């Protein structure tokens, strides 16, 4: 860009971002000025400019276009264009290489600039996407931008094709190009289908297979080669992404339609100059120095060598599938690392928090952590949720000779002082993975836990291979227990669900239920109630009812029930009641795409995660959600006390942020360990109420609006009444919860 002229003092802001596929995004805010746009140097680019604010006249030697707010002007890089901004303005410029498959729109390059009006149907959709990019350009990384890279070229081509007439498209040749573009889009949507073929696509577009092949020949390609390249590119992106670091290469290649590991390895090496395994391990700086990928076989390659390399890669893929300890450190932004934290007896603590627990992993702010978490309800159906999974079998092992994990709760080890249930007495029930030390975290700092991915753990039992299961316990601690209609009036019922969360399917269905009967644990103690975590259920004492919840599907909303940092107290703290340190929050919004902010109470923060849920409603009324073991990808971010600003500058309680909302957590007693004194861990179960929790949620939400949004008290109170939703988080965790949901759309600026 070249500045030609401006009125008065010129000032502004420029923010730019270049994506992994070489898309360039530039957002500029400035005063009135005129610039010359000349992109003739370097590879040819398709460019577009969306006017976010202001007035713009775009001119070439032969054309002049008045651009209104929200409209788009576009062209090819070698055009000489003058952009005249008439007043203070803000705009987003996007450049996409014209070699991208989705931009093969015409038989010859566009001769002049054109515009796309935002009020048209397709224009409105494209404008909405670009405005979102402009608003978030400073906060995204390559993985967050990847869906935009996939969608934007297809969006652009669809928009431009829908706007163009037959003449504008270049007559008959242009119409053929438009048809080919629609075919590209069909292929892109079905890359994961291993049976995708030429005849199938031709039939869908009402043309002959021969004519479809001719269309590809017109752009120097073939159907099969094009599909293979697009699949390879999708695999390449997933191999580099920390979101998929825990997945094997085999999983990735099968997801994108390849059905043979050796052929995939050969094709990947031919296209990118290295094997899939080498690519996954290579630091990004090495990748940048590698020879640029080219079509076809490398000129020095020999068939025999390629076949040998494919055999080696097949061995590597099989090894990686079975060896999780060999997961690579994924290169990510700013030198962040990727860590893998499996569940083992050494990496979990059962039923308690404590500042005296030793960290099992230390990470830097911004690192990625793949962390396995287990439900403490897996023994509700040992066959489906424990059997055949070595890690779960080890953690749950309980025989007359002993337990792998003896302590389950924050009570006495010998359990003689109170209930006699077992070591820890069940005063705390959750299997927590961690604690994870956040390097440099100190009291009064804030730790943000970004949840990037959360997937159910599949059964280790070959009988249920590939299936996932969870349990819901309507138990004695539930809200319903003393308010039942049918006999027996006080009963506990376990319902086992199958959880389906594959692509296109995301629901849970009841398999069967059974009433709890007195269970004798391996140490000979009889449990009349479900009062100790991990109790083995003797299936000969229960009656399974398979005629349950017919024709009902529960939407899967995977989330964490427990995310907490260590309370400052050195003694063991029951994992059930939540507090300002987080813990057993039990809100289904703590899900992929959200960030939970927690105030740090001890050095290193000591973050623990557990109680994974497949689905739950607000209130968790009967005592539990669908309790289901899961594996997550998280990213902890440390915010120093001296740098706290915006919505966290006055934060001393848990705060959840989603794309559209802030969620504030209120409790009957927000800091119950301090408020209730020496007997806090017993008194909290007697002194909770919705009234107190509502009062706390109101006070915190009022403070949030006054400090983070600069409202005065009267403004905040009015907004809380007319625009904020308060809901019951849970009434089963001792310290009852109410949450306030503040929608971001309320604030137009």
From TrEMBL:
Pfam families membership = FmdA_AmdA, HTH_18
- Location of the region described as Disordered in the Swiss-Prot/TrEMBL record: 276-304
Cite the InterPro entries for this sequence.
FmdA_AmdA, Homeodomain-like_sf, HTH_AraC, Tscrpt_reg_AraC-type_HTH
Stored PANTHER family: FORMAMIDASE C869.04-RELATED (PTHR31891)
Q: List the GO molecular function terms.
A: DNA-binding transcription factor activity; hydrolase activity, acting on carbon-nitrogen (but not peptide) bonds, in linear amides; sequence-specific DNA binding
What range(s) does the HTH araC/xylS-type domain occupy? 181-282
List the protein's name.
Answer: HTH araC/xylS-type domain-containing protein
Record keywords: DNA-binding, Transcription, Transcription regulation
Taking the record's annotation, the residue ranges forming a coiled coil are none
């Amino acid at each position: 860009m070249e500045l030609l002229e401006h009125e008065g003092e010129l000032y502004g802001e420029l923010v730019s971002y270049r994506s992994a596929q070489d898309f360039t995004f530039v957002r500029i805010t400035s005063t009135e000025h005129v610039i010359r746009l000349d992109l003739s140097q370097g590879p040819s680019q398709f460019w577009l400019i969306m006017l976010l604010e202001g007035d713009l006249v775009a001119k070439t030697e032969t054309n002049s276009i008045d651009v209104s707010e929200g409209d788009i002007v576009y062209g090819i890089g070698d055009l000489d264009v003058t952009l005249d901004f008439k007043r203070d303005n803000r705009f987003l410029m996007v450049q996409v290489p014209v070699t991208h498959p989705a931009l093969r729109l015409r038989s010859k390059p566009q001769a002049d600039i054109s515009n796309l009006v935002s009020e048209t149907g397709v224009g409105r959709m494209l404008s909405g996407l670009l405005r979102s990019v402009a608003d978030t350009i400073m906060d995204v990384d390559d993985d967050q931008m990847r869906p935009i890279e996939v969608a934007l070229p297809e969006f652009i081509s669809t928009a431009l094709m829908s706007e163009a007439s037959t003449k504008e498209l270049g007559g008959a040749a242009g119409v053929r190009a438009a048809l080919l573009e629609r075919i590209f889009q069909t292929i892109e949507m079905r890359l994961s289908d291993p049976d995708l073929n030429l005849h199938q696509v031709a039939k869908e577009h009402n043309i002959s297979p021969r004519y479809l092949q001719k269309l590809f020949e017109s752009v120097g390609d073939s159907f099969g080669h094009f599909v293979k390249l697009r699949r390879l590119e999708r695999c390449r992106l997933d191999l580099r992404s920390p979101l998929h670091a825990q997945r094997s290469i085999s999983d990735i290649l099968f997801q994108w339609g390849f059905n043979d590991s050796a052929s995939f390895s050969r094709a990947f090496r031919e296209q990118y100059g290295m094997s899939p395994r080498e690519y996954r391990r290579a630091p990004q700086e090495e990748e940048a120095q590698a020879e640029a990928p080219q079509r076809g076989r490398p000129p020095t390659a020999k068939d025999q060598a390629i076949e040998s390399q494919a055999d080696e890669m097949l061995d590597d893929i099989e090894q990686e599938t079975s060896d999780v300890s060999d997961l690579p450190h994924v290169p990510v932004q700013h030198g962040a690392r990727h860590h893998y934290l499996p569940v083992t007896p050494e990496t979990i603590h059962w039923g308690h928090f404590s500042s005296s627990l030793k960290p099992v992993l230390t990470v830097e702010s911004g690192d990625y952590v793949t962390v396995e978490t287990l439900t403490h309800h897996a023994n509700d159906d040992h066959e489906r949720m424990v059997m055949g999974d070595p890690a779960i079998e080890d953690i749950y092992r309980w025989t007359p000779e002993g337990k792998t994990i003896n302590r389950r709760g924050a009570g006495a080890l010998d359990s003689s002082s109170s209930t006699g249930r077992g070591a820890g007495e069940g005063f705390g029930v959750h299997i927590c993975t961690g604690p994870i030390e956040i390097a440099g975290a100190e009291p009064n700092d804030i730790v943000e836990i970004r949840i990037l991915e959360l997937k159910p753990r599949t059964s280790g039992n070959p009988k249920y291979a590939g299936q996932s299961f969870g349990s819901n316990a309507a138990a004695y601690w539930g809200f319903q227990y003393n308010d039942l209609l049918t006999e027996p009036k006080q009963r506990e019922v376990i319902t086992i669900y199958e959880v389906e969360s594959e692509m296109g399917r995301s629901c849970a269905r009841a398999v069967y239920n059974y009433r709890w009967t007195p269970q004798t644990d391996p140490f000979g103690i009889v449990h009349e109630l479900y009062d100790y975590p991990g109790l083995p259920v003797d299936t000969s004492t229960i009656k399974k009812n398979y005629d349950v919840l017919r024709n009902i599907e529960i939407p899967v909303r995977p989330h964490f029930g427990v995310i907490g940092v260590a309370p400052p107290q050195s003694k063991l703290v029951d994992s059930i009641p939540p507090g300002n340190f987080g813990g057993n929050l039990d809100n289904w919004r703590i899900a992929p795409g959200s960030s939970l902010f927690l105030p740090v109470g001890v050095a290193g923060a000591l973050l623990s995660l557990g109680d994974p849920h497949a689905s739950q409603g607000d209130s968790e009324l009967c005592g539990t959600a669908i309790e289901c073991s899961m594996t997550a990808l998280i990213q902890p971010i440390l915010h120093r006390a001296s740098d706290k600003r915006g919505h966290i500058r006055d934060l001393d309680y848990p705060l959840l942020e989603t794309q559209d909302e802030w969620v504030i957590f209120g409790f009957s007693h927000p800091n119950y360990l301090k408020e209730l004194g020496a007997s806090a861990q017993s008194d909290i179960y007697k002194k909770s109420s919705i009234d107190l929790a509502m009062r706390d949620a109101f006070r915190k939400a009022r403070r949030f609006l006054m400090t983070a949004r600069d409202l005065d008290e009267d403004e905040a109170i009015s907004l809380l009444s007319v625009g904020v939703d308060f809901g019951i988080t849970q009434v089963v965790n001792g310290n009852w919860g109410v949450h306030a949901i503040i929608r971001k759309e309320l604030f137009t600026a």
